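This section describes the prediction task in plain terms. A model, or a person checking by hand, is given the sequence of a single protein chain and must write out its three-dimensional structure as a string of tokens. No templates, partner chains or ligands are provided. The sample shown here is typical of the held-out split.
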Amino acid sequence: MKDAYSLLQFRSTIWNDTYMSLRNWYLSFSGDACSWKGVSCSASRRVSALNLAGLTLYGAITPSITDLTELTVLDLSNNSFMGGIPTQISRCKELTEFNVAYNLLTADVPLELGFLTKLKVLRINDNNLYGILPPTFSNLTHLAHLSVAGNMLSGYPFETISILKNLEFLDLSSNKFKGSVLNQTVVNWPKLAKFIARANNFDNVLPATLGNLVALQELDISQNSIQGTIPDKINKCGNLVIMNLSCNALSGAIPSAVGEIPTLSVLDLRANSFNSGLPTGINGYNNLVRLQVSRNNFLAIPDDLATLPNILDVDISQNHLEGVIPSTLGTMTRVLSLNFSYNNLSSNIPPQIGDCARLSVLDLSHNLLKEIIPYTIIKMRSLECLNLSENHLSGRLPEEFGYLSELTELDVSGNAIGGTIPAAIGTLPRLTFLDLAFNKLSGIIPTNLNFPASSFVGNADLCGPILNKSCTTYVGRTVAPGGMMVSAAGLVLTMTVIMILTWWFCCRDETDELNSSFPAGVLRRLTSEALQRATEDFSSINYIGSSALCTVYKAELSDGLEVAVKVLSPEYYGSNRRSFSMEAKMFAKVLHPNIVKVVGCCNSVNMVALVSELMPNGSLEKHLYAGEVCDLTWIQRLDIILGIAEAVAYMHHEWESLLWCDFRTRSILLDALFKPHISNYRIAGNPSSEENLPPGEVLSHF
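The expected answer:
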């Protein structure tokens, strides 16, 4: 009965019970409070635990609650209790857990808390408590969990708590503590697994006694003013998983002892003055997943950075990096994020970077990078954020950007990139931020790019409604953005141009490079098992199309080459397997840059297939007639006409037995750069001196 009256008195000081959580707190015939919300009782019907956490209660912690002298657990966390902790709390001598975290308490920490010698958990964090940690805390020899974070406490805490040898968790963060971060002589915490002291005023150096914390798994002493170097004895912390020393005044080299910690997964040394010793797999770090060393004084990216076997996140931004981006980074096939921004890197972007197939964030902005953006970027299909801004990049925007379907942010502003803007960028389904400003782009802004004018400013030759700038005329007609006028006269003109160019190419001097640029090709013999793996067991994801005679799949061979695999139906060649092999061998020798190349074949018992280079942009017909407007620029259209003329001249005058069987846009295929390739051609006559074979149709058009 007495405990019930004490609780009712405590409830009377709660002036706001928002959700009426304590509505069943009233006296009943039993005379006790054991059935009340948040109350637990012992066998003697005395209140042994009071848990009112997270009930949105407003009030004060009154001395009446200390009448519950058999309490072992008192949890009032996540409410809005004000005032202070009553000094009478020392009456609750059976308490093992005291939790008033996340309230609005404003007072000194009472020294009486230090008389609760059975405490194992003490949480007074995230209030507005001030003063120092009472010296009586040294009595709490059973304490395993101590959290005083998020207050305004000051003084030298380690003088009080350094002898608490049962500590497993210690959080001193976000206060005004000062002095050395640890006792310079002895630290007697053999069980401490988590030590957090960030955002204080600790200074001096890291003592060698840090190595005494042999059970430590997480160390966070960031946002202080700690000086000096990392002590070599850090390798004694053999269970350390997370080390955060960021935002201090540490300097020198990262000691090799750090790499000797076998369990280390996260190393955060941002905003210090380290200048050497970047982690590599050669120096250990076998389990390192995240490396954060931005805002230091490192001078170069080590070639063997890529030897870190499990790295996922690398940030070396805002240093003094010079020289090249190592091509060896392409071997980091597991990495998810690379940030080398705000440095002085002056090389090109290595094409091997495209081999980082899982990369989702690539930030190389604010460097001195030059040359073109590599086309191999198409391999990074998981890329979400690409920032290449403020460099000296030139060339064109790769058409391959259109394949980065996960891309949400693209920033290439502040370079010298020319040419037109690929319309394929506007098809990216997730793109929410685009900045192409201050380059040398020209032409019409594609109508499918719905971004503000600020994304395109600083390109003198760009035009379109977004910039309120009309576009120039072309052949006497004003060209609407993305538009194309197709008429009978236009088609006649196009074919006439092709014929004229064909005559010009064939009448050039015989020493022209065309006569010597195409060595004979070698046909790759592939097994049905190899093609099955390359197409992921002929998955529907890789399906391109089919007809009565074949089915076509996209595939990637073991060496990374992307191809189209056309599996022929049994009716096509039947039992005449040798004729297929001979004809495929002849097709492989057709090596013109504007004719679809046959690179391999399969002629096994259970499969007959022809393997050709992949044409990812499909047929010209699709681009001319599929939509309301054409998505090809005038420059691209002219390049296509020239390419077709080159191919026709080659077929009619260099390899006269090569016949283009289907002279129409459906048989002109476009590669990733929208370069044209003739498909659907035959070899007439006698391909083999041994045997007269029936002419076959190249099955390489998609």
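For orientation: The radius of gyration is 37 Å.
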